[in-house]
Design a protein that fits this description.
With 114 residues, the chain is of the alpha+beta class. Helices cover 34% and strands 26% of the residues. The chain has a 3-stranded antiparallel sheet with strand order 1-2-3, with no helix packed on it.
Length: 114
């Protein structure tokens, strides 16, 4: 059984997602489908683009690509974490020892909470 999908806009379950491409940019919508009196109605809530371009330029060096709300939060967070950890590893020589120690402490605290 597929887990229930909750719309981030209204908090209600949605039936499926719809994708539209406008001027080469992919946009996602949560579609709520209802049947009343033999008629089907659809309500669409905008979830955003597949990826964000506005903030990308400032984060390119980190290897982080901002994803839209159509990507489930756990998958998105995991991808962001991998990208940031990879950037820290690649650029570790740019950190002083105190900065690396602080990063290690933050990681240890986060792992303890898991």
């Amino acid at each position: 059984m597929r887990p229930m999908r909750i719309c981030p806009r209204c908090g209600a379950p949605y039936s499926y997602t719809e994708r539209r491409i406008v001027h080469g940019i992919e946009y996602h919508y949560a579609v709520h489908e209802k049947r009343e009196n033999g008629r089907r109605t659809r309500t669409r809530h905008y979830l955003g683009p597949a990826t964000y371009t506005a903030g990308q330029a400032t984060h390119m060096a980190l290897g982080v690509e901002w994803e839209g709300a159509a990507t489930p939060d756990p998958a998105r967070l995991h991808a962001y974490l991998r990208a940031v950890l990879g950037a820290i590893a690649r650029r570790r020589d740019e950190f002083d020892e105190a900065g690396l120690d602080e990063i290690r402490r933050e990681l240890e605290r986060a792992l303890d909470e898991l």
